[in-house]
Fold:
Amino acid sequence: MTHTHLDHIGCLAEISKQIPWAELWVHHLEADLLEQGDERAVYGMDMFRGLCQSQFGLKPGAFKFQVNQKLQGGETLDLGGTVWEVIHIPGHSMGSIGLYHRTMKILIPGDVVYADYAIGRFDLYGAKASQLKESLMRLGELEVDILLPGHNRIVKGLPKGYILKTARQWESYLT
Ligand SMILES: [Zn+2]
Ligand SMILES: [Zn+2]
Structure:
């Protein structure tokens, strides 16, 4: 998981029921919360917790999971014959990770950066604007041809310097 917000891990219970051998890999900063059943990083803020619980019939404690692998960032994952580098990119959430395929220049940035010069929100639990800026700068160093963000749309043929340009547009808000 790129991070543990509800809109990304909401179906984990269903997935592990259907695919019991599937493993859950999460950055350790959010893995510990998941294992403790601490749902602050899942809902992000109290208002969303109440809203989502009543709207989707979710019970408190619905998001307590054992994590099979706690990531640090810096790992290289061999997934189905493709190799992905794990990059810790906090700011949108404390344990956000990006997955980068260096030879194919594919980046999966979770909710850190999207198409259309949009970035992830930085007002939720565990978020930090200055860290988000650093993470964007870090991603900006990568050569990316295909961006596969957590929302809006996929971008093929990402313009050179796109992520740095995005970071610069948001810079004054990311202090
Ligand atoms: Zn998110
Ligand atoms: Zn999201």
